[in-house]
Amino acid sequence: MKMTVIGCGYLGATHAACMAELGHDVLGVDVDPEKAARLQAGEVPFFEPGLSDVLRRNLAAGRLRFTTDPREAADFATVHFLGVGTPQLRRGYGVDLSHVESAVDALAPLVRGEHLVIGKSTVPVGTAAALAQRIAVLTAPGSHVELVWSPEFLREGFAVEDTLEPDRLVLGTDPDRDDSGPARVVAEIYREILESGTPFVRTDWATAELVKVSANAFLATKISFINAISEICENVGADVSTLADAIGYDGRIGRRFLNAGLGFGGGCLPKDIRGFMARADEVGAGRALRFLREVDAINTRRRAALVDLVSDAAGGDVLGTNIAILGAAFKPESDDVRDSPALNVAGQLALRGASVSVFDPKAMANSRRLYPTLDYADSAAAACEDADVVVVATEWAEFVHMLPEELSGVVRAKVIVDGRRCLDAAAWRAAGWRLVALGGPMRV
Ligand code: NAD
């Protein structure tokens, strides 16, 4: 089937390449000419394991192409995925829908005949209904654009796998219209995936929009739950990692997303829970989500707690000390530094007068762009040169499996702060290091 994917960032570029991988003819559309050109040249403009192979294979097969021209999109296909960004507003907790709106504003007047737009971006409940009206006004007489919403659940670092083997597909349609036509088209696009037994949840617009933000609110809550427990563990000397293992054995709870530490960041969870709270206020249900404010507060507090822990480890004050920060991406297997806890901590330590040296295996270019005033090193060892404290802020495998002996001769003091509770504490202590972990003791 022929289709376009509008917005070719983490979500859209992955989606475009994966739809081509399923055998479809795909045109990726982005307003950023550099991004479109790089993708067309077979270069993924961000780090995502496995994506480069899928991209190149499908470009070479002639099933995938990129453009910046909305007219080309309107002429190329009658099915259009919408995956543009929905960042937090500059002021307030609400969601900035300007990219979504300008994407449909550019497309709708150009289409002729019957078209289907499949929204994938994460949006506040009510967005699809409002956009459908906007599109109807812009569409030429005699033409029609049907709008459905199918939120995306992929995880950065596993984006290809999550797109081709999702846990479920959700399709929300206009509750006042017969949805059999659009549902048939969507089922045909995902035929291979659905035939493998993937659950297909069909519902209305509002429910589909809420599924996505509810899922992210739940995940954020789970992380902040264990981090709240870790604050108690810190005070009483209990081991929150062992506690998480023990409660995680309960099938009703599960061990995943129960890792205490520096908390969540990135381009999704923080802005999604805030956007959810803002919309709940607008629809008169603000009270229902008041707990998310606490989830957000617990999460933000972890960053300040790590800064304090590093100060303690440095002898009470970081002024004039050398601090190595290992990790800048908001999580491993990604180069995404949007709302990165690691860089936030690095910035706070620099403000307190430390000389901070940051290293990340994949996120250096993005970090330099976002935090140009920090110092960056070319390797973990280089970042640790003459360090008074080494801080692990992102749990990249390269840091988790780092050998203490390799850093022992490089640093000024053998002090390491484990912000992600991911190190083998016994091995570091056996090598003569002082190891402290965010969230209380690690009794290995
Ligand atoms: P991104 O910033 O990486 O990508 C957005 C892209 O849209 C950019 O390349 C931008 O140039 C392009 N764009 C903006 N306005 C446009 C327009 N009018 N026409 C065409 N292109 C336009 O963002 P992302 O991380 O890919 O997120 C996109 C959406 O997907 C967001 O709603 C996000 O919440 C959601 N989402 C993201 C993830 C993830 O892991 N990144 C997972 C699930 C859902």
Keywords:
binds nicotinamide-adenine-dinucleotide; Rossmann fold; UDP-glucose 6-dehydrogenase; about 450 residues; alpha/beta
The ligands found in this model are: nicotinamide-adenine-dinucleotide
Helix content bin: 40-55%
Number of separate helices: 19
- Report Rg: 23 Å
CATH domain class name of the largest domain: Alpha Beta
Structure class? alpha/beta
Name the beta content range: 5-15%
Tally of domains: 2
Shape annotation = globular
Catalytic activity: UDP-alpha-D-glucose + 2 NAD(+) + H2O = UDP-alpha-D-glucuronate + 2 NADH + 3 H(+)
GO molecular function, one term: oxidoreductase activity
Family: Belongs to the UDP-glucose/GDP-mannose dehydrogenase family.
Protein name: UDP-glucose 6-dehydrogenase
Question: How is this structure best summarized?
Answer:
The chain has 444 residues and is of the alpha/beta class. The chain is built from 19 helices and 14 strands. It has two domains: 197 residues, NAD(P)-binding Rossmann-like Domain (Rossmann fold, 3-Layer(aba) Sandwich); 209 residues, Rossmann fold.
Structure characterization notes:
- The structure is a single chain.
- With 444 residues, this protein is an alpha/beta fold.
- The chain has two domains: 2-198, 3-Layer(aba) Sandwich (Rossmann fold); 229-437, NAD(P)-binding Rossmann-like Domain (Rossmann fold, 3-Layer(aba) Sandwich).
- Helix content is 44%, strand content 14%.
- It contains 19 helices and 14 strands.
- A six-stranded parallel sheet has the order 3-2-1-4-5-6, with helices on both faces.
- Helix 1 crosses helix 3 (51-60) and helix 13 packs across helix 14 (341-351).
- The radius of gyration is 23 Å and the shape is globular.
- The N and C termini lie far apart (54 Å).
- The relative contact order is 0.09.
- Bound molecules: nicotinamide-adenine-dinucleotide.
- Nicotinamide-adenine-dinucleotide (NAD) binds at residues 6-12, 29-32, 35, 83-86, 99, 102-103, 121-122, 152, 154, 156, 267-268.
- Belongs to the UDP-glucose/GDP-mannose dehydrogenase family.
- Its EC number is 1.1.1.22.
- This is UDP-glucose 6-dehydrogenase.
- It catalyses: UDP-alpha-D-glucose + 2 NAD(+) + H2O = UDP-alpha-D-glucuronate + 2 NADH + 3 H(+).
- GO terms for molecular function: oxidoreductase activity.
